[in-house]
Amino acid sequence: MDGFYRYNTLGAGLNYNHTFGSVHDLAVRLFYNHSSETVPGDNPDYKYQGLAMRAQYGFNKRYYAEVTASYQGSSNYRSGKRTGFFPAVGLADMLSVTRTEAPTVHRKEYWPIRTKHGRNHTSLT
To answer: What is the biggest distance separating any 2 CA atoms in the chain, rounded to whole angstroms?
Structure first.
């Protein structure tokens, strides 16, 4: 099979969503993925593997907090630094404005204020 192009991928994940009372929202996701690619000739094989987690908490549909973390490995990263841990945190406030367009029509708009801080994959390349 030296002359054939091959691409294999596998992904699996778990999701959990729940509302506690009427004001606390929790969402958690865990995801695993793996892929490999082989190209004929003198081209190097490409391999990637990762595990990621995201947890989100919302209060009263207005205030949100998020924590994300992943552990990734790739043959594209430089030698000696093929894997890395990439955490991130975020906060958001959904500013709500109720505006009356007509005497019987109300439209609610959401204006988010958000901040996130984290480390991305390009930090290692």
So the answer is: 73
Q: For the chain, what is the total number of helices (H) and then of strands (E)?
A: 0, 6
Cα dihedral 33, 34, 39, 42 in deg (nearest 10): 120
Confidence at residue 104, expressed as pLDDT on a 0 to 100 scale: 47
What is the pairing mode between strands 63-74 and 46-59?
antiparallel
Phi, psi at 45, each rounded to 5°: -70, 150
- The residues facing 49 across adjacent strands are 34, 73
Dihedral through CA 113, CA 98, CA 23, CA 95, nearest 10?
A: 10
**Among 90, 92, 10, 18, which Cα is nearest to 54's?**
90
Task: Give SS3 for 101.
Answer: strand
Cβ atoms of 43 and 7 within 8 Å: the answer is no
pLDDT tens, residue by residue, 69-100:
999 988 887 788 888 899 999 998 877 634 44
